[in-house]
Design a protein that fits this description.
The complex is a heterodimer of chains A (217) and B (194). Chain A has 217 residues and is mostly helical. Chain A is built from eight helices and two strands, in the order αααααααββα. Chain A is 66% helix and 2% strand. In chain A, helix 3 runs parallel beside helix 6, helix 3 packs antiparallel against helix 7 and helix 4 crosses helix 5. Helix content of chain B is 70%, strand content 0%. With 194 residues, chain B is mostly helical. Chain B has eight helices and no strands. The interface between A and B is large, with 39 and 39 residues.
Chain lengths: 217, 194
């Protein structure tokens, strides 16, 4: 984003960018570990998405407020300590709200620390922009991440367990595709979504070329 | 094999619960550096070294934190240990093998944010391994990481020559491939108990 003029205005684009055009998972391929690991059910996916969004927003806000104070040489270390603090907070919060959920997600709550999306946003956006704008952008990125997790989680739970959010959808005669909730299913479903998006993009490009040709003639 | 024996811990981390293909840790370098066999091997060994150092340091730190009843500082101190271990490996690699240092480039500092390493130290704490077991666990995890990376790199080198539909090029195809590899590794699940 080096070429773009820097301004402080917050537009709808600041928020929407993270959801679609720069979606952290489907476009930038960041933070893949939790995306694959905790999406075996919709509930896990939502929890993980919300927890990551919380850490993303609060660490972006703090980094952005401190951006003129943090020395340049130690900025990465500082960001990581800030992120780790918020992850510790959310770790204890989830443990307090629902121990079952906490056990289902396992170490992946604590592993939010090393999610590249958060460090990437701190370095690329929050350290250069005002707190409010950084928070809006972080909210967009977090929503994009949550949506991506939901995309995977719903497909995997639907096919692997025949249910959505624990409610039976297909009835008793449905034979679940167990592989979908096992590790290989994560790779397959994410690969499938990427194929779908690549196909849509290729189709759009083709129609654009056609349109241009019509205009030119 | 007894579940507490060193050989079992090693095999468990390397094959049965392979960090990349079964636990989804370290997917970023797995997809990022597995293009060429040579870089994949050196990346694997660098990561294993960092794993070993951080595992030993984390074991020491955890025993201190437990004594003073300050477990809430665990995450922050672990990540600090990992960052320093990466810095150490980076500096020594720069000194002893500048070619390798240049080949790995940006991926070397990124080992800090490799979830396989933080995952390893968190798991070893959760499983309450003693010192020797921790070392065996970290070596097993490293071996598993190298194995996954090398397998993937070999497959992707072959794939360069294959003709695939244009929409499936890049990450989508790599993910499908990883899925099949992961399916193969599930065959080892019968070896272990957990």
């Amino acid at each position: 984003m080096a070429g773009r003029k820097r301004d402080d205005s917050i537009t709808a684009d600041t928020f929407l960018e993270g959801i679609w055009r720069e979606n952290p998972v489907f476009v930038m391929l960041l933070g893949m570990c939790p995306v694959l690991a905790v999406t075996n059910s919709v509930l896990n996916a939502i929890t993980m998405g919300l927890a990551t969004t919380f850490v993303l927003i609060s660490s972006s806000a703090l980094v952005s407020m401190l951006r003129n104070v943090i020395p340049k040489q130690v900025r990465i270390a500082t960001y990581i300590v800030i992120i780790a603090t918020f992850v510790t907070i959310i770790d204890y919060i989830i443990q307090a709200i629902s121990l079952d959920l906490y056990n289902a997600l396992g170490a992946f709550i604590q592993l939010i620390v090393v999610n590249c999306i958060i460090l990437g946003r701190a370095e690329a956006f929050a350290s250069k922009n005002r707190p409010l704008k950084s928070m809006v952008s972080a909210l967009g990125m977090g929503s994009g991440f949550t949506i991506a997790l939901l995309c995977l989680g719903s497909v995997r739970e639907l096919l692997g367990n025949g249910s959505l959010l624990g409610i039976d959808i297909f009835g008793a005669q449905f034979e679940p595709w167990v592989v979908m909730i096992l590790p290989p299913g994560g790779f397959f479903v994410l690969g499938g979504w990427l194929l779908l998006f690549n196909w849509l993009r290729a189709k759009k490009e083709k129609s654009l070329v056609k349109e241009n040709a019509v205009h030119a003639s | 094999m007894h579940p507490d024996s060193l050989a079992f811990i090693f095999l468990n981390a390397a094959i049965i619960n392979n960090f990349v293909l079964a636990l989804f840790l370290g997917i970023c370098p797995f997809l990022g550096v597995s293009g060429k066999l040579q870089t994949a091997v050196s990346m694997g060994f660098a990561t294993t070294l960092v794993m070993l150092i951080s595992s030993i340091c984390a074991y020491a730190i955890n025993s201190i934190l437990v004594v003073y009843d300050m477990e809430f500082l665990r995450l922050i101190s672990y990540i600090a240990v990992i960052a320093s271990a990466v810095q150490l490996v980076e500096m020594s690699m720069k000194k002893f093998s500048p070619t390798l240092f240049r080949a790995l480039g940006i991926f070397l500092p990124l080992i800090t944010t490799n979830c396989a390493i933080l995952g390893l130290v968190l798991f070893q704490t959760a499983k309450e391994y003693n010192f020797i077991q921790s070392v065996s666990y970290s070596l097993g995890a490293g071996a598993g990481f190298i194995l996954a990376l090398v397998l993937m790199a070999g497959l992707r080198e072959k794939l360069e020559l294959a003709e695939v539909p244009s929409i499936s090029q890049g990450a989508a195809l790599s993910l499908m491939l990883a899925g099949i590899l992961s399916l193969a590794f599930m065959g080892f699940a019968g070896l272990g108990t957990s």
